[in-house]
Amino acid sequence: MKVVIIGGKLQGVEAVYLAQKAGWEVFLVDKNPKAPAAGMCSNFYEINITKDEKGSLAEVIHGKDLVLPALEDIDAVKIIKSVAESQKVPVAFDIEANIISSSKLKSDKLFADNNIPAPRYWPDCKVPVIAKPSELSGSHGVRKFTDEVILKEFIKDIQSKGEKWVIQEYLEGPSYSLEVMGYRGNYITLQITEIQVDAGYDCKRVLAPVIMEGELQSMLHEVSAKLARILNLTGIMDIEVIINNGQLKVLEIDARLPSQTPITVYQSTGINMLAHLADIYVYDRLPEVKNPLEKKHVIFEHIAVTPRKMETLGEHIMAEAGPLQLIENFFGADEAITNYCPDREAWAAALIISAASKKDVWDKRSVILRNIMEEHKISSYNDSFPRF
Question: Are 244 and 310 part of one and the same domain?
Fold first, then answer.
């Protein structure tokens, strides 16, 4: 299988990793030669697809089996689809579903119209609240307000600027993620993962498998499949939820290959979401997923190392790290995606750690962090958590 991955940021890192685990030949395209995924594959093409007057993208796509846009610019995706169609190569991306999921206002309306449990909107709730830019994904731009006066000043300011924000009640509780895949009204849900965030509400750690009450677990799978059917999804979608006082609430959806959770699920179960996208888009079939009886316990975690200090932080540190590489047996971790080199004082890594049990994987993590700290003579470690 020959796959063209367009976009070398964090989605691209995820896609390149999974493609290589599937044994595929990878052709990566990005306008930035120092994009994070650029260091992870040998076939890299520096192309600005919105200014591709020479038709370089068509040359790269020609004769390949699949194209995966690993970016969030819908106009760029439309260009990619047009070029790929001219080369008769399928594109693993559902534009219509993504347009809805990438807008928090549109997706929240979908939740309300279809009785999907979700956080309440301001002013139909009390502070604290979370404010999110409507058109940005994940934790980008997220702000928390605990003071109603400051909140109203913020609302007045964004209204004067014509900015679109979603302001909802802040809910405390564990957060989880689940991917759903399929097409033509037939969908499968995969493994639930737990999401842990840093002080800026950026995902710093993913855990699998998770322990969740049976009724809530069934509800999460059912709601995810329902949302996929409502969107008439072709491909993959990620659903993020929170359990607050025993109640499941959907925080957001994202109709594209996500980052972090697919690698975690792959390490825990062997399920390769990118290979299953090929089932849908190349072979025109619903993926057959066989969940193993014995799942590995996995920690996927981001660390930033500077002289005398190490921190666990959100994935933004990986986006800013430049070209990355995949290293096996990294200070005791199974693998690491990192810009590490021995003479570099400041570096970042996504640690991939697995073991047979929950206790074993956390014990293994402790040894890995200690190994890094001893090797680099680090005396301070901080595991960043939300401040409020």
Answer: no
Q: What is the mean pLDDT of residues 18-24?
A: 98
Task: Kindly state whether residue 290 falls inside one of the protein's structural domains.
Answer: no
21 and 44 belong to one structural domain: yes
Mean pLDDT of 110-127: 93
Residue 223, domain extent: 172-281
Mean pLDDT across 178-202: 96
pLDDT over 80 at 273, yes or no: yes
Q: Are residues 301 and 255 in the same domain?
A: no
Q: Give the max Cα distance, the chain.
A: 59
Percent of the chain clearing pLDDT 90 (strictly above): 86
Is pLDDT of 138 > 60? no
233 and 144 fall within a common domain: no
Q: Do both 274 and 185 map to the same domain?
A: yes
**In this model, does residue 136 exceed pLDDT 70?**
no
198 burial class (0-12, 13-18, 19+ CB within 10 angstroms)?
buried
- pLDDT at 243 > cutoff 90: yes
Dist. CA 361–CA 164, nearest whole Å:
42
pTM: 0.93
User: Based on the structure, what is the number of domains in the chain?
Assistant: 4
Q: 76, 93, 110 — which closes off a domain?
A: 93
The residue length of the chain stands at 388
- Say if residue 8 is in the same domain as residue 26: yes
